[in-house]
Amino acid sequence: MELTITNLSKQFKDKTAVDDVSLSLTPGIWGLLGANGAGKTTLMRMIAGILKPTRGNIFYDGKDILTMGEEYRNLFGFLPQDFGFFQDFTVKDYLEYVAALKDVPAKETGNKIDSLLHTLTLTDVKNKKIIKLSGGMKRRVGIAQAMLNDPEILIMDEPTAGLDPGERVRFRNLISEFSHGRIVLISTHIVSDIEYIATQNAIMKAGKILNAGTTDQLVKQADGKVWTCVVPAEKMTMYEMQLRIINQRSEGSNRVAVRYLSDEAKTSDSVMVTPRLEDLYLWLFPQEEISERGR
Ligand SMILES: Nc1ncnc2c1ncn2[C@@H]1O[C@H](COP(=O)(O)OP(=O)(O)OP(=O)(O)O)[C@@H](O)[C@H]1O
């Protein structure tokens, strides 16, 4: 199974949101990383077949998805970023409704819904109206509806937005288990949400895919640029101004362990360390550092 994207572009008046993207998606979990406005949502909506490209094509095993109609929709699950719920439906009624739309066989619907509600810890609220749910719960109902038809291709736009740390871990486990033999594409600007589950990543900037590959392949670009050192706490203000700090942790005794990005060592005790995906991301998107550190 393969989704082949060739020379795909989307133009909104004078804005090129997606700019000549070519990418081959094979089974596994794909992380689509990029800053706000990079074009992730636009690319995903085109892959979902709900937005027509200005130029280029998307092929599912050689067939243009725009010619596949219902056949494509039936093998597809999509969690949009802005989810238009039927707020007056209960969770269970809503999922039953989606299951019917997606042609899930009636005799499988009950079990399928119960199992997703259980995995996504929504069983207790299944008879509640969606309008009464928290943001994180609504997101999980969104995840459930995207997975209801056991899609071969699952596209999720910022699925972890609004989830608490425990829910994030459960989401990662659920997706890892689900992904065997399927294409799962997850967009996020929170690198840690996909760092350990993505088999491949595509990094998007200004409408283009800058790079695609396994985490190991990608992080090589930040080789030699990530350092750690320990500095006196009273000098942290100075270091914060001088260094591109990725994170800092108090070591006690007024000392702070610092991880930073630089072409060369900036303190005499700095040790070069193996880069992680988050390091590479911050290297490529320096403007994200403040918001990432502020999380
Ligand atoms: N319908 C539209 N009309 C005009 N411009 C649009 C439209 N949709 C998106 N854009 C613009 O295209 C660019 C890419 O937007 P897109 O939502 O795809 O990015 P993104 O990477 O998903 O960002 P975010 O993480 O903030 O959702 C942005 O500059 C956005 O303002």
UniProtKB/TrEMBL annotation:
Pfam families assigned: ABC_tran (PF00005)
Entry-linked SMART domains: AAA
Taxonomic superkingdom: Bacteria
SUPFAM superfamilies recorded: P-loop containing nucleoside triphosphate hydrolases
Location of the ABC transporter domain: 3-231
GO molecular function: ATP binding; ATP hydrolysis activity
Entry-linked InterPro entries: AAA+_ATPase, ABC_transporter-like_ATP-bd, ABC_transporter-like_CS, P-loop_NTPase
Family: Belongs to the ABC transporter superfamily.
PANTHER family associated with the record: ABC TRANSPORTER, ATP-BINDING PROTEIN
UniProt-recorded name of the protein: ABC transporter ATP-binding protein
Protein species of origin: Lacrimispora amygdalina
